[in-house]
Amino acid sequence: MTRQLPSEFGITVVLLIIGLVLSLISPMFFTTSNVFTLLLNTVNIGLLGLGETFVLLTGGIDLSVGAVLALSGVLTAVLFNAHVGWVIASLGGITSGLLVGLFNGIVVRYTKVPPFIATFAAMGVASSIPLILTDANPIPIINNSFSFLGQGFVFGVVPFAVVIFVAVAIVAHIILSRTVFGTHVYAFGGNSESSRLSGINTTRVQILVYVVSGTLAGLSGVIEASRLASGYPTAGAGNSLFEAISAAVVGGVSLFGGIGSIPGAFVGALIIGTLSDGMNVLNVNSYWQPLVIGLVILIAVSVDTLRSTRQGRTPKWMALLQKSLRKDAGPESSGATRKDTAS
Amino acid sequence: MSEILRVAHLNKEYSGVQVLRDFSLTVNAGEVHALIGHNGAGKSTVVRLLSGSEQPTSGGFFVGGHPAVMSSPRIARDFGIYTVFQELRVIDQMTISQNIFLGGELNNKGFVLSREMDRQAHDLLKSYGLSHLDVRQKVRDLSHAEKQLIEIVSAMNGKPKLLILDEPTTALQISEVNTLLETVRKLADQGVAFIFITHKIAEAFSVCSHVTILRNGITVSSGPISQVSQKQVLQHVVGSTVIETDRRRELVSGEPGGQVVLTVQNLRSDVLNVSKMVVERGSVLGLYGLVGSGRTELLETIFGARKFSSGTMLLEGKEYRPHSPVDAVQAGVFLLSEDRKRTGIVPQMSAKTNMVLASLHDFQRWGFVRRGGVNMKVQEYVQKLTIQGNIEGPISHLSGGNQQKVLIARWLIPRGILLMLDEPTKGVDIGVKAQIHTIIRALADEGYAVLVVSSEVEEIAVVSDRVAVMANGMIRAVLCGAEIVERTLIEESLVGGQR
User: Fold this and answer.
1) Are residues A298 and A209 in the same domain?
2) Rounded to a whole number, what is the distance in Å from the CA of B459 to chain A's nearest CA?
3) CB–CB of A224/A150 below 8 Å?
4) Chain A nearest CA to B145, separation (Å)
5) Which residues constitute the domain of residue A78?
6) B343/A312 CB distance under 8 A
7) Which fold has domain B245-495?
8) A219-235, pLDDT tens digit by residue?
9) Does one domain contain both A277 and A321?
10) I want to staple B146 with a disulfide (CB 3.0 to 4.6 A). Which of A53, B142, B169, B203 is the partner?
11) Share of chain B above pLDDT 90, in %
């Protein structure tokens, strides 16, 4: 048996290729400042995507994350203007996300309403509250310490928000790969009935993944508020929800549950971030940008679907990649993928 | 008489295990053929082959005298061969008439002609004496028997030459059975041929013109029903094979009668009515019965995966009332479920993780899984149960037997008191089967109380100290020691089923 490459390998190569192509086209792309701008712009999608990964792994979906981002930012601003201090205000914002997640989890678990509908409803609620609270006007937050969250730099070049993002990703990865809870998340998504019959507390697992997702959305709302120095009631209203889901799915997280990883979602977010940043650097007409991103997402999801319908087989494109990278192992790997078609 | 279907020398193997040997059959118009056999005799395999759902390993089909290939259910239908499977295919959310015309909707340039379908469906129902049903009613609201009749009517709508009915009466009440048999008779008079799969001998005699008996995949008798008696058929079904008493003696050595671990009293639920059952420490209680006799349901109830309406359970003398599998596992009551694919393995996960899935809490420190501990334990059981294959890879890549061993290990790693095994050797090859039997006996000797459900008489007889025979949700008889012989088991289970 040949040694198996980690499943994140394929998309990492894709990311590198995109990066390589962009830096060949534009000398502006591969500069320290642009790379960190790119990373900073990826933080929001990335954090939402990491949370979404937990939910997707159980076979659910959380549509409320974009709305929670706005809710959390506005609540932070409202609390701050009520003179409670920025730390407490931020925690308040994050907690609002946690509570929305808890609500989602409880509704999904106990009413058996499909996650798509339950979290869609929560999205409506969570996106209205900030508009009602603010009359659709942004609420400014003027505080130097608070603005460090989203605008500060470590060592002069690394944006602090990026440090938070990477730290959260590492913690999330450890939770999913090393803890009992993480294993239960995969087990529940892989086969919920087997998990239940193994005596796993599936109620807790299912509710907690929504809590994680909501909390991370809350955190990203606080960071966004800090970047913009105000609570924007319409922040996160655009494509951030779908980009977050796409980040996870592009990164190999299956919409059917049980398959995927944090490193995958992390790279997925970087791919989406790199594409938008690259197109900005290249001055691609903004009308074209969603089209390109849409196509990338479509390809990624198709690959995912094909992979889960022919389970256990390496996707052809990945086999090709592996082949081209390690020419000596070529014929064997292509033979293995063909096996099923022949019979 | 015109020949409709002739099959010659069909053989079928699943991953090297031959489940059907040299099966031949000729069906003429208007004949009703009974296909009789006990659990695992190969009846379902015959259905799958004749319906086109699966291809034989070797052998040929002749439709109307011409060679034919049954490559899919659709093609079988084109030949006029329709199958009503034991698990019904009706769609609950659709109306009766939609179900009847499913896949062959009447239409005008793509627009469905609902009124016309309703009208024709109504006429059809009427001609089968089902005019009391409203064709616009959702199938969901019908009884199981009615759904089955709808499926037959739906098949009749395709003007079949041959209709295969797979165990059509298992889920029916007596009066419903009669309606069904009456319908079969009527249609046979009109020239439709039937293959009627059943394990109920009396039923076969009441309606069939020919009978074929399968045992262990081999055709032991085939011919007009007038040439055999019910008693002879029973003899053929049961066979003359005697349980290998040597093997049994070799395995079952300790004398039963240890400390009582589980007592079930007057347990009632929608499908169960168990007045008393006792499982003892260090002994194996076998639970034998036909599919649908309530065996699996009883295990699931004890495991907290299924609700019960009344009754008591005592676990080591204390009241035991599990509300969920979580409760059961905490109390040390474990279940190896019957359907390995659906409710056993988590296919994407490694065999290793699958093995420790139920005992992760034993390996944790502050929520983190101690990998060293897991690896040691897993290695121990890989050796103990001689599990072969890559345990770091996805469990779905292992063979059925090795998957099963991993799942058994899943319940051996946490320390429990009662171990329930539902069809522990389903779909594993013979060598592994014997190993699993030895493991089960070893577990009893280690002090587990073990409850084993199996459809296979030999298996039950080999591993059990005592055997409870179930039928219709009740325990019909409890046999021990020398009483455990194949014949008694089969007869008890059939008597119950006949009621």
Assistant:
1) yes
2) 24
3) yes
4) 29
5) 30-312
6) no
7) Rossmann fold (3.40.50)
8) 999 999 999 999 998 88
9) no
10) B142
11) 17
